[in-house]
């Protein structure tokens, strides 16, 4: 180890903190004409920086020190401030660091020590001890009638279809019985797993009956059959005999509480392979989710192949030191790259459809567009624009211009390809977090504003989104977007709003006549830390979300059942933003077991939900997670 960097909190207040960083030259060579690079996801106030200058693009920082030589066995020290909340977790500190010499020609890796936090070490909180429940069903079905005895699935067991709608569910059940329990059904055996149409059952609803004669799965929809299969997969118990499973005799009549039950995955901040995406979608099916919201583009990466614009992925899907997109969030030295070809996307869509899940793509505009802007500057950059702005993630060049022809050409072409590729009736266009100050000093935006009598940047954003909405409508699609999509009051009430700030904001949209999906960050963001110990990975800008808080998310608590506004709330979605999700293990840790708590908020009636009861079912359910090698966060310390 030749170079090491330490970061220490010097002082902290609610919205202001000061830090000291020390770079140790532990080598036996002087560093000459050197620079320091590091990654941190807070904005460093440039004027607060001592002993050098800092330049920051997103989370990527380059320091030019005041003194250009750092002697062997000496150290360099700098201080700086942020005007945001204190750091509480090790993952808040430097993620990586690098020393550059000779104009970047020589790179020296730097060991990063864990940040010395100001706050005292906080113990991880403990869950109450509970007995593992035998009938470990998650989410809890709405009506369960447990009976005496068991039915044995044997080497002679066969799946029989009396409904064409059940075909996909039956295949999925077969695949999962084999992968989870090493159980093979017999194509010419005794028909004891029967899928049967029941036209009295609504979308998603099912009845599952296990008796001495066998197992019957009834539904009126393809999704209902998938949900029935998911329940059956949680009911089976292994036995000593090979290819023999035990299922308790039972009758379950079950239906979803909300018709939209979703999860969003951010594949832009870090790329996740097709295999990883499918793995997650399969888990979603086990918990009766029916939508997968695929966040495919953002400032830090464009992940979907667009045939008309190969630059979007040639340039926009790669980050590295000497590239158009500089490193962000994780390593400085490695190239981070990846995108999904249209063929791979089709594969994912059909994999999801086989599990009752609709894939909703998101192309995030007009903010969060840095990757697209860097890839297609000739179309998208407004070279006359002198506006000064800084986005939440510290970019000053990430917003599309509503006054450029190229913006519309880009948007129409991309949305047309996306609409052709995805059978989903909904297309998500983002619309979140356009920074203040954008467009104000753009001559062409001023002209556009004057032409239409617009007064603010919100009007301009609305102008662009209304265009997107009309284009999507012409392609037979419904536009959906984050909460800010209704800013400027230009899109129609046909747009579905995904509300992430608060329930109040969601209800405000619903009362204006928008359909709404609830995704409040304080409860449903799986990138939030799960406890108060500093070694918990994650962020906490919205909250820390222990399992108990996730479980206790109860939407619309204050709204009477009779209030018609409830009809506008279509459902719930949880989200995994992936700034810190760099590998499968981290993903599993952040997702599980909180996903199971979210599933219950989506599926199970309020009257059926109980924290302690959930915990005992969760305890009984953990072995099934183990069978899938899911590296979940241990809910109990000494499992
Ligand atoms: C907010 S919620 C964002 C994302 C970040 C996330 C981090 C929303 C629409 N935008 O861009 O990744 O916070 O938690």
Automatic annotation (TrEMBL):
<keyword id="KW-0378">Hydrolase</keyword>
<dbReference type="GO" id="GO:0004563">
    <property type="term" value="F:beta-N-acetylhexosaminidase activity"/>
</dbReference>
<dbReference type="Pfam" id="PF02838">
    <property type="entry name" value="Glyco_hydro_20b"/>
</dbReference>
<feature type="domain" description="Beta-hexosaminidase bacterial type N-terminal">
    <location>
        <begin position="136"/>
        <end position="254"/>
    </location>
</feature>
<dbReference type="GO" id="GO:0030203">
    <property type="term" value="P:glycosaminoglycan metabolic process"/>
</dbReference>
<keyword id="KW-0326">Glycosidase</keyword>
<dbReference type="InterPro" id="IPR029018">
    <property type="entry name" value="Hex-like_dom2"/>
</dbReference>
<feature type="domain" description="Glycoside hydrolase family 20 catalytic">
    <location>
        <begin position="258"/>
        <end position="605"/>
    </location>
</feature>
<dbReference type="InterPro" id="IPR017853">
    <property type="entry name" value="GH"/>
</dbReference>
<dbReference type="InterPro" id="IPR025705">
    <property type="entry name" value="Beta_hexosaminidase_sua/sub"/>
</dbReference>
<dbReference type="InterPro" id="IPR015883">
    <property type="entry name" value="Glyco_hydro_20_cat"/>
</dbReference>
<dbReference type="GO" id="GO:0016020">
    <property type="term" value="C:membrane"/>
</dbReference>
<dbReference type="InterPro" id="IPR015882">
    <property type="entry name" value="HEX_bac_N"/>
</dbReference>
<dbReference type="Pfam" id="PF00728">
    <property type="entry name" value="Glyco_hydro_20"/>
</dbReference>
<comment type="similarity">
    <text>Belongs to the glycosyl hydrolase 20 family.</text>
</comment>
<protein>
    <recommendedName>
        <fullName>beta-N-acetylhexosaminidase</fullName>
        <ecNumber>3.2.1.52</ecNumber>
    </recommendedName>
</protein>
<dbReference type="GO" id="GO:0005975">
    <property type="term" value="P:carbohydrate metabolic process"/>
</dbReference>
<feature type="active site" description="Proton donor">
    <location>
        <position position="433"/>
    </location>
</feature>
